[in-house]
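Figure 6 in text form: structure in, sequence out.
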């Protein structure tokens, strides 16, 4: 009886250690900027080896073939960064007139403001404005990751180092050479790599049976395309028209559908809105040019009018934004984060287990 009880305590200790260490390492101090994480495991999984159809109008699977293998465990936020989270970030710096920081504002139906140096607010005419996905530039996404990495301070210099080393000063427009291709090794938050995004959206470690991993064609844990429709009527907002039909008095813009509105549609790891929401930045480079101003996007967003659901699959849409796009090239952002190392977990778990054994005695 005592041995069984001890094993239960040990398991509880390890489980508690993992949860506490993951929370301590990944969560910034501000409550608004905590995230619900999905742990992406099965390190060393196989890459996607599917085929793509060059005769298709959207032969975008070609950017996925050979990708999706990740040899470490990591975390991805279950939701994209919300308007409420981004608004708090912007308002920390929007009134600092020493820097033209207006490009940080991003775009969302949920944001209203008075100008480049004014405070911004949630749109009072939009329901659930704080929960809408935000569209932001790649550089401002790196700045947000830096800010979180540094603990969400009010110092504008915290936007330029941490997860990414941005080699330009506040008020300057960077050149492509000043924008890094990858995050720092010790980053606490970062824009997902192409492999990380594909794995989190499509790879299932039990796809072909227990322990037999493989890829679902759609990022909804299915080989069948999700049905486009409003929440409660379909499984994704991807493909919904973005402009009203004059004969449809009940039109709802997909840009006003909050994140998490399709709770039954998720990736194998529990990510929501990888189909729908906004198309999301990845750090993947367009292999044709392999330049920093051509990053690949994951998922399918509602802003693509008339999207054929048969093409909402492993595809990635190219968005070339030239001079790293301060104002243009807005897309959604989903964050990646590390988890504690096994050695740290075991040390922490051992300490908890000792305490439990002492109490048991």
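Output sequence:
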């Amino acid at each position: 009886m005592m041995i069984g009880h001890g094993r239960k305590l040990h398991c509880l200790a390890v489980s508690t250690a993992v949860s506490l260490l993951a929370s301590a390492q990944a969560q910034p101090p501000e409550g608004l900027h905590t995230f619900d994480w999905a742990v992406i495991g099965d390190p060393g999984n196989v890459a996607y080896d599917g085929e793509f159809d060059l005769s298709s109008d959207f032969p975008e699977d070609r950017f996925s073939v050979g990708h999706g293998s990740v040899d470490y465990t990591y975390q991805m936020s279950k939701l994209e960064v919300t308007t409420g989270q981004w608004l708090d970030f912007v308002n920390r710096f929007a009134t600092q007139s020493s820097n033209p920081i207006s490009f940080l504002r991003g775009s969302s139906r949920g944001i209203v403001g008075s100008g480049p140096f004014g405070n911004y607010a949630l749109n009072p005419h939009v329901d659930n404005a704080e929960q809408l996905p935000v569209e932001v530039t790649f550089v401002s996404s790196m700045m947000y990751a830096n800010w979180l990495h540094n603990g969400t301070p009010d110092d504008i210099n915290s936007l330029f180092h941490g997860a990414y080393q941005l080699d330009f000063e506040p008020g300057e427009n960077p050149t492509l050479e000043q924008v890094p291709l990858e995050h720092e090794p010790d980053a606490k938050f970062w824009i997902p790599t192409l492999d990380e995004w594909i794995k989190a959206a499509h790879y299932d470690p039990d796809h072909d049976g227990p322990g037999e991993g493989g890829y679902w064609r759609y990022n909804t844990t299915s080989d069948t395309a999700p049905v486009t429709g409003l929440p409660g009527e379909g499984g994704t907002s991807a493909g919904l028209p973005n402009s009203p039909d004059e004969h449809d008095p009940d039109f709802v813009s997909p840009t006003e559908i909050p994140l998490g509105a399709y709770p039954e549609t998720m990736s194998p790891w529990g990510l929501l809105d990888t189909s729908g929401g906004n198309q999301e930045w990845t750090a993947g480079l367009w292999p044709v040019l392999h330049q920093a101003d051509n990053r690949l996007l994951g998922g399918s967003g509602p802003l693509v009018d008339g999207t054929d659901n048969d093409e909402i699959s492993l595809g990635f849409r190219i968005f070339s934004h030239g001079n790293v796009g301060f104002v243009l090239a807005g897309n959604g952002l989903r964050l990646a984060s590390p988890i504690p190392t096994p050695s740290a977990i075991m040390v922490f778990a051992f300490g908890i287990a000792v305490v439990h054994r002492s109490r048991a005695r």
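Caption detail: Confidence is low (pLDDT under 50) at residues 1-24, 303-313, 344-361.
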